[in-house]
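Friendly challenge for the regulars: who can give me the structure tokens for this chain first? No prize, just bragging rights.
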Amino acid sequence: MQCLLGIPYVNRPDLLALAVESVRAIWPYTQIIDNSPHGLPQKGWPVAVFRPSVPLTFSQTMNLLASLADETGSDVVLMMHNDAEAAAGTCERLLAAVQEAERTGRHWGIMFTQYDTLVAMKRSMMRYVGPWDTNLPQYFADNDYYRRVRLAGFEILETGLPVTHHQGSSATIRSDSGRAYLNGVTFPLYEQYYISKWGGRPGEEGFEWPFAGKLATAFVDDLRRQGLFQSLAASYDTVEGNLLERASDPTPAAQIETLRAELNWLGARKFLETGTNKCMFGYVLSRLVQDASLFTFDGDPRSARAVEILQTSQQEVRVQFTLGDTKSTLREFREPVDLAWIDGGHDLDTALSDVNQAMRLGARSILVDDTKSMPEVAVAVRQALDAHPEYQRVKTQLSQFDSRGVAVLRKLSAGCQ
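First reply, four minutes later:
Bragging rights claimed.
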């Protein structure tokens, strides 16, 4: 298991020295993130010092650590406050707790010591949840992120391991009267932003997704305003619904956010779709990913026109269309895929065949639409899971807002358990 420890630094090199010395056991995996005004001397520190081109806020620093973790192939991101000091053995015990959680298959995302004075974060969780909100540069950023982690269904574990937070925390502000003054000015502004985002102060939140879904709905509105959407919608007439047409808010927003979260942690580039219809799934993908391939299947020859429109109107997704009954055509398909979107035939035999074929192709995540609106599809999902114990259905955060019901089936070895 590879880890990365980042220690954000702004001031108080004396406290930073204590923090660094206390994590001696993992010095090879430690980096000081130097956000000080004038720069920390590189010499004399037993660990790497990373100086961004401009000083970063706390949230920006956390997003930088996520990026550095990917560069180093790290499975776990540790963060330690520069005014903290870990007791002897704390780092080793924290990493042992991480390994035990992995061994037992816990769906963990965060491990606290004394809150987040020293904290471990699972990198795949961070991909799924997404970046820290840079509109909250410091205070309330932690409340926001940890709430998102919980809403996404990940465990936040309390280890109680001993870590001292010197001077009762906030040494960065206490040691700089200018920062302290600006914090007094901005604190109520960021508090109001948090209230607007979550419907209440920390501990009093009323929303289950940011801004009660207004941002997600705005994204759907933007998709529908584009000329490409209008061209796809006009490609032919049908009573069949799809991801963006004949779907009332907030269902499309909830489904797209569910898809976005799966894309975040998978890093998917090869997709399978059944039920091409007007190629709306491919259109949505083109706004969420780059350099992707979509293999899409439908029995209606009119879908070919929508595929042609999408192919000639964007470069992010390459689309290959196969015409015919998926109970036959998919059996001949051999290309491994990362993610499958199943929204084709709604009879039991077709839905079950489509899901089984997606599993045969090794899709790490399979999203099956209409499990609420089509009883046959729900039965097909249950039967496919019974036959494939390597997959499990996972709870989706926004299912209550999704009237059609996208089921997420995840391969257990996919790394985001």
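The longest strand covers residues 115-122. The longest helix spans residues 177-198. Your move, everyone else.
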